[in-house]
């Protein structure tokens, strides 16, 4: 509905509401008209509901009046009047009237009362069944709530443990990061120092044979020669024990002595180069 239609409906409603009296001035903008239109719709709906209730009450009043006249005729046929009833009769009549009002029966016949009481009993049984079902549901929900609380506490404890571990790991990680930063700075420092030393060695013209790698290789070669020299010495010792009159033994001995001297010379050279 557009704004102009809402405004016309609101204006008609206000005219009917004030019944010829001047309608109070109001600001005519979209927000005000929307609010008045909503108020009009609610008021019209409430008036409709009220009219329905009034009509229902009038209908019931007519029915109760007719029923009172019928009961009056019955009492008149029995030569009884309301004023001639005993106190107990008046009390019973009032009780029946209140009961008819509570049960909302259409007339005061026994059938109407019995049907109304039966409907009331069925309603009570239905409510009792719903109450029992709600109690069972409440028990189930209580058990589920307890389980949920237990799980919640367990999860909360696990989270707390994880937070503690995370805090501890963060401290260790920070320490490791500091150590890594320190080592990286040292690596850079040593790299610069090594570069300077290489430049210095290159400028001084130092023989590469005195470098650490060369010395290590020479030491390894020396150990290898010593290992080879040991068995030869043992073999020479065996030849020295041979009889002197064996010519072949002499020749072999001479050959071994030459080889031994050669090895000793190489060993002396290696040792001399290590002293440099």
From TrEMBL:
Principal place of residence: cytoplasm
Domain of life from the UniProt record: Eukaryota
Annotated GO CC locations: cytosol; HAUS complex; microtubule; spindle
Spans through the membrane: none
PANTHER family attached to this UniProt entry: HAUS AUGMIN-LIKE COMPLEX SUBUNIT 1
Family, as annotated: Belongs to the HAUS1 family.
Protein name, per record: HAUS augmin-like complex subunit 1
Species in which this protein is naturally found: Littorina saxatilis
